[in-house]
Structures are given as C-alpha cells and as structure tokens.
Amino acid sequence: MIIPTFLKWAGGKKRLIKDIERSLPKKIDRYFEPFLGAGAIFFYIKQKYNPKFCVISDINKDLIDTFKAVIDNPKELIKFLKYFKKNNSKEFYYRVRDKFNKGKFKQIQKSAAFIYLNKTCYNGLYRVNSKGGFNVPYGKYKNPEIFNEKTIMFASRLLKNVRIKCQNYEKIKDYIRKNDFVYLDPCYDPLKKTSFANYTPKRFCDVDNEKLSLFVAELKRRNSKVLLSNNITKNVKRLYPKNQFNIIKVWCSRSINCIGEKRGKIPELLIKNY
Ligand SMILES: C[S@@+](CC[C@H](N)C(=O)[O-])C[C@H]1O[C@@H](n2cnc3c(N)ncnc32)[C@H](O)[C@@H]1O
C-alpha cells in the first residue's frame, strides 16, 4: 500500500504501520486522529477501512493549512513547489524561511514554502523560537526529493470528504460516541528532560500527559475504541495501568533524532482499551 505522506514529521508513524496494523479494530466506521502530524496512520486507515466519517486535526496551524492546500488546490501547490525545487540552495532556503516567518507568502505559496522548508531543513525538524518563528537551519541534503507530484495528488484524493481542523486534541470529544475509533499519537512523555518536543511554541510536557490520560478515560467512558502510542516511561505505565489497558511493546526506528536518544530501534508502547 502506498502511504502518501508529503511531510517529514518527528514521531511520524510510517515505519510503525505494520505493528499498528496488528492492533487495529476489525471495523472502523468513524475515525478520529487529533495528533495528525504527517498523517501516516490516517492514510493507511483511509485506504484499508474507508471509514464513513473521519475527523483529523492538529494544533500546528501551518501543518493543517498545508493539508488544506493539498485538498483544495493540489495543482497550484505543485506549481509553487516546482519553483522552490528549481531554486533550492542554502541562500534561497534562508530567504524563503525569512519570508515565511514574516508572513509574506499568500496561502498556497505559504504551504508550498512549508513543504519546501520541511524537506530541506536540518533533519526535517519543526522547531520554532519564542516568537513562533521557524528557526531550523538548512539541512545540506545532496539531492532532496522535496515533493512528488503523484504523492500529492493521491493524498489529495484520500483527503476528500474528510474533516480537517486546527485545534487542541480535546476538541474532538464533542463528536465521540460508541464504537468510534480514536488513534492518539501525542508528543511522547520524554525519556529524558531534553527529548525533542517543540512542535509548536507551547511545549507539550508531562503535565499534559496527565490531562491526556483523563481525556482517554472520558473516551473509554463513551465506549469508543482508543489506541495510544507513547514512550515506555514510569509516568506512562502509571497513567495506563496493565489491568485497565492492553499494552503492546513495539520497536520503532526513529529517523528524526531526539537529543539524547540515538538513531536506531527504540522500544515504545501501543496502549489500547479493546
Ligand atoms: C508525534 S506527532 C504525530 C505524528 C503522526 N502520527 C505522524 O505519523 O506523522 C504529534 C503531533 O501532535 C501535535 N500536537 C502537539 N500538542 C497538541 C495538542 N495539544 N493538540 C493537538 N495536537 C497537538 C503536534 O503538532 C504534532 O504534529
């Protein structure tokens, strides 16, 4: 199956699809993914289960605007991406980054710039400074792919009729009812204090993981099916005890390095209530 992710995203689940696949319910009629990132699991579930109703969301506005551009105007987006690709160089990158941060691009062009920066920046990181400006340096890739026309057109087709929102994860609660399937892939509980978690200006930290567990409890109460990915930490084990959840250990290779965590296979957890 082709998974048409058009962004590199920290914590991206493309490489874990085989393991996640084994933990999915038999049937998915209504699907919710409120920590979307590059959307690998959404693209898989849409093709495998074709749910009647999907709500996907993320708190990162530039990310969601880019998904919307892929849905609404993929051809125009590709036109701008061709321009960015043709001009790619270190100097050009910093000019684009500056213009991006100063809000000088119009919408579709801004989304093309977002994809261009994502694919040419150091390690595909998304990191912002205290003012919310994207501040990742140029990545020095020899021949970065930047985009693939077919991938974007395919992603656009799969995203048709899907509700996509920029919002805090808790907002999906309004929709959730019995048998709905929710996949939660939050920024992980850090293995060390320095672990990478700067997806948006507001840091997503331990305290939020406490809140997230209350949210999971509410979803459980509504008899929905919840699958959650997270690191193996004391905190996570405490929040999701074995007598209340099915816990599966999987090995994940992380391509976007976390400070203090080496590239290579790292065990993590799939936690589910069904
Ligand atoms: C681990 S990444 C998800 C990766 C995704 N599963 C993939 O395959 O690319 C976590 C995502 O959660 C988003 N996020 C962080 N805090 C959030 C919040 N409070 N509400 C919604 N999304 C949030 C980040 O912007 C980031 O895209």
How are the SSEs placed, and which strands pair?
Layout lengths: L16 H6 L7 E4 L6 H10 L3 E6 L2 H12 L1 H14 L2 H12 L5 H14 L28 H11 L3 E4 L14 E4 L21 H16 L3 E7 L2 H6 L6 E9 L9 E9 L2
Parallel strand pairs: 1-2, 1-4, 2-3, 4-5
Antiparallel strand pairs: 5-7, 6-7
Helix pairs in contact: 3-6, 3-7, 4-6, 5-6
The protein binds S-adenosylmethionine.
Structural commentary:
The protein is of the alpha/beta class and 274 residues long. It folds into 2 domains: 14-55 and 170-189 and 203-272, Rossmann fold (3-Layer(aba) Sandwich); 67-151, Adenine-specific Methyltransferase, domain 2. 37% of the residues lie in helices and 16% in strands. It contains 9 helices and 7 strands; from the N terminus they run αβαβαααααββαβαββ. A 7-stranded mixed sheet has the order 3-2-1-4-5-7-6, sandwiched between helices. Strand 4, helix 8 (206-221) and strand 5 form a beta-alpha-beta unit. Helix 3 crosses helix 7. S-adenosylmethionine binds next to helix 2.
